[in-house]
Specification:
By secondary structure, the protein is an alpha+beta fold. The protein folds into two domains: 2-33; 36-154, 2-Layer Sandwich (Alpha-Beta Plaits), CATH 3.30.70. 45% of the residues lie in helices and 22% in strands. The protein has helices spanning 2-25, 34-40, 67-86, 113-121, 124-127, 147-154, and strands at 47-57, 90-95, 102-108, 131-141. It has a four-stranded antiparallel beta sheet with strand order 2-3-1-4. Strand 2 and strand 3 form a beta hairpin.
Length: 160
Amino acid sequence: MKKSYRVLLHGLVLACSALINQAYAAEPPYGYNAELAKQLGADDYGMKSYIFVTLLTGEADARITDQAERTRLFAGHFANMGKLADEGHLVLAGPFVDAKPKRGLFILNTESMEEARQWVMADPAVQAGIFTFELSKYYGSAALMQVKAIHQTIQKNAVE
């Protein structure tokens, strides 16, 4: 009886080993698009490097109370995000809800901390001190590069 269990166990190990080897030697998953992967800058895992920006409440946020000035600065903030998105630099952006001092995030299409810093520093709300920021290297799906195109097909109202 023990011998037959050993033979059965040995057979299962060999079968599992063969399946694992077959899985690693298999073609890329169904639907793999080499051209799209190249266009998006994906590595073999479908990933790429970005810079993740955390926008934080700046010291001037509490001091700038004039509503017209805040409206002007935030209009510039949104215009800067639009410019970066149109240039292919801003991949994803959005506010945090009830997370002060964290206010929002950007994911920037660059591996360069200096380049990311320059792009963020061009934001009027950052220049005015309403926001400050932290930069982190981020490795995520290259599919994020398509967020803007997809978002434009589902956005009913413009952000102003």
